[in-house]
Amino acid sequence: MRPVWIVDDDRSIRWVFEKALAREGIPFQTFAQAGEAMDTLATVGAPQVLVSDIRMPGPSGLELLQSVKQRFPHVPVIIMTAYSDLESAVSAFQGGAFEYLPKPFDVDQAVDLIRRALDESLREDKSEEAVVDSPEILGQAQSMQEVFRAIGRLSQSSATVLITGESGTGKELVARALHRHSPRSNKPFIAINTAAMPKDLLESELFGHERGAFTGAQSTRRGRFEQAEGGTLFLDEIGDMPAELQTRLLRVLSDETFYRVGGHQPIHADVRVIAATNQDLEARVKAGLFRQDLYHRLNVIRLRLPSLRERREDIPMLARHFLARSARELGAEPKRLSDAAMAYLSGQDLPGNVRQLENVCHWLTVMAPSQVVEIGDFPPELREQRTSSIVDWVTALAREADRRLANGDTGIMDDLSRSFEKALITKALERTGGRRIEAAGLLGIGRNTITRKIAELGIEGRDPADAQASDTA
After folding, report:
1. What is the pLDDT of residues 296-321, one digit of tens each?
2. Please, what is the angle between helix 315-330 and helix 339-346, to 10°?
């Protein structure tokens, strides 16, 4: 079990916790400032449970809460608060705090609360261990196999990598895999989303600041580059980085040194940078929004992640994985998609890619009324897509019928019916790899019917089962 961290600038509070936790045989570590805990978080890792005051010199307990939740979302955080900090306690819950402990507190009550948090944390650890048994990134499509091969080829390299792909394709997962399989795997992996942070805070967040560098800088703070020393720094949404910070980043990549905000001493940076973007960086360079020299520094090795539309064959496997994981997390029976529901889901564009598919599966685990999920059980936005697509093809059919009627064509019903049946059967066979029984099941017709239609409509292709029987004979 990892230690419980106590963070409070009041020495007497720390002493009370030290005595109480030692008596209970619970390992602990105490800190006088949140900044010290943040530094330890970056180098050592997460505690089992964090107990922190709100008001302290330097970063506040709420800033510490945010920092912990960003990197280790499952760590329970107990916020200590005085009555005057009640509004802050509400903010703490909104920030993901496990519970708050009002001051002055009863020591036994505090220990009981820590024990509850420990039980919760240890349960989460077991759940994560079960998930670790499954592969880091799932994908059988050829485009994903190329990504896996690239990760393997880069396993002994510390080269800078640029990962491109639409939102939700798993760029951070790939970055973590690159780190995990690199010579730097025993050092920190630090991630920061450059688009999610206000411009005036991003410089301090990346490079740290000296005490007194600006209003509110009451203590020296190590930035993400220092936190990632010897390891990997993942810069997500790099295309949105402000121009002045692009210049500073270029200097770090070129000289491997930087200065804290307000600092005068150069700091060496032994850090591997992995950047990611969902934007066209070449276009941003041409538009003058991204430095060309920085682009070339980042674009040493490029990995492009395919959208889910480009790897639809992976959707069934991913859906089953996410449904099983959601069931584990919620302590529920795993849901199963019917054949029709799976075929329908595999045909959706899912602009949010793997992240959207994961959210859909989580929604179904909570909201679907029965264990077998049907098309009507999908979230409203997916059902609306179905209605929209039906309207589109019906409109197109009506337009084609109107055109032929206006031309005075004959035999329109038979001709359009044959085209309709041929398109349906061809697509069903493509979906099943030519297996007629499965294709017939998807279309809701019998095998004899589909065999007859294939012959009548002149659809090419053999059933793999028939070919195997012929080869055996």
Report:
1. 999 999 999 999 989 988 999 999 99
2. 110
- What are the pLDDT digits (tens) for 102-125? 888 888 888 988 988 888 787 666
Query: What's the domain range around 10?
Result: 4-132
In this structure, the answer to whether residues 332 and 285 fall within a common structural domain is no
Element spanning 21, H or E: helix 11-24
User: In sequence order, what DSSP letters do the residues of 375-413 get, joined into one string?
Assistant: GGGS-HHHHHHHHHHHHHHHHHHHHHHHHHHHHT-S-HH
Residues 46 and 111 in one domain: yes
Amino acid, res. 256: E
Q: Show the tokens assigned to 342.
A: 């799976």
Cα gap 328→75, rounded to integer Å: 18
Quick one: 234 and 287 in the same domain? yes
Q: What is the mean pLDDT of the chain?
A: 84
Q: What is the predicted pLDDT for the residue at 211?
A: 84
Q: CATH no. for residue 78?
A: 3.40.50.2300
Neighbouring residues of 358: CB distance < 8 A, sequence distance ≥ 6: 318, 322
Mean pLDDT of 76-95: 66
**Residue 389: what pLDDT?**
52
Q: What's the N-to-C CA distance of the chain in angstroms?
A: 63
Tokens 């995990």: give the residue.
180
pLDDT digits (tens, 9 = 90+) for 258-274: 998 888 889 998 999 99
392 is a domain residue:
no
CA angle at 303 for the pair 301 and 308, rounded to the nearest 5°: 175
242 preceded by cis ω (within 30°)?
Answer: no
Radius of gyration for the alpha carbons in the chain, expressed in angstroms and rounded? 29
The model's confidence at residue 90, banded by pLDDT at 50, 70 and 90, is low
Give one DSSP letter per residue of 131-199, joined into a string: HHTS-SS---SHHHHHHHHHHHHTTT----EEEE--TTS-HHHHHHHHHHTSTTTTS-EEEEETTSS-H
To the nearest 10°, report the CA torsion of 335, 338, 342, 348.
Answer: -90
Q: Which of 100, 132, 164 is the endpoint of a domain? A: 132
Residues 327 and 296 in one domain: no
Of 249, 275, 306, the one marking the end of a domain is 306
What residues contact residue 164 under an 8 Å CB cut-off, 6+ apart?
276, 277, 278, 281, 302, 303, 304, 305
For the chain, how many structural domains are there in total?
A: 4
**472 pLDDT above the threshold of 80:** no
Q: Are residues 291 and 211 in the same domain?
A: yes
